[in-house]
């Protein structure tokens, strides 16, 4: 094996090969520490450890439509017009539903007119309802010439401003069976919270209570009575023109 470094000398016709001792090669030394970055270059420092992936840039993000025009209406027979969709269109309205609210009474869907009184709708029947009359008042005694307590008219607002009727005003609910699941109470021209006594009495009967003004209560009764049936929903409505 020839040495890595050779020198050639000529002496006449004689050739001699001289070898030179080789220097020992040392392994390359690397810096022990990684190159330091500039302290202000935070972007480069974070790029060495984390890498973020952006699928959509702001330039190509979706923009809101300039127009909501969906073109001319389709002529297909199978197309559904959701604006004209009426789920309860084929269901017959209840006969004791409220057709109109007058100042002193109501007009039912069966053309029955109630004047000078509220109405209590239970199990498909309509009853005159006067919760403002005191419990000890005797109806009809004045017309018969007797001595009746005609001045005992009870207020529907207690000392705290809450709506309250005497317990005897709910007597029909105590007798009827099966009892309705929900009672919609219309408190007159405006919504007034019922008293704890009224809530507790209806809760003991197993009847849930929902309170609204009379107009909205009548509309909700018509909807729920058509959807769920007359035995599940009842209504107790005070005339819209009631004033104390």
Automatic annotation (TrEMBL):
InterPro entries: MTH938-like_sf, NDUFAF3/AAMDC. SUPFAM superfamilies: MTH938-like (SSF64076). It comes from Viridothelium virens (Speckled blister lichen). Gene3D superfamilies: MTH938-like. GO terms for biological process: mitochondrial respiratory chain complex I assembly. It comes from the Eukaryota. Residues 60-80 are annotated as: Disordered. GO terms for cellular component: mitochondrial inner membrane. This is NADH dehydrogenase [ubiquinone] 1 alpha subcomplex assembly factor 3. It holds the Pfam family DUF498.
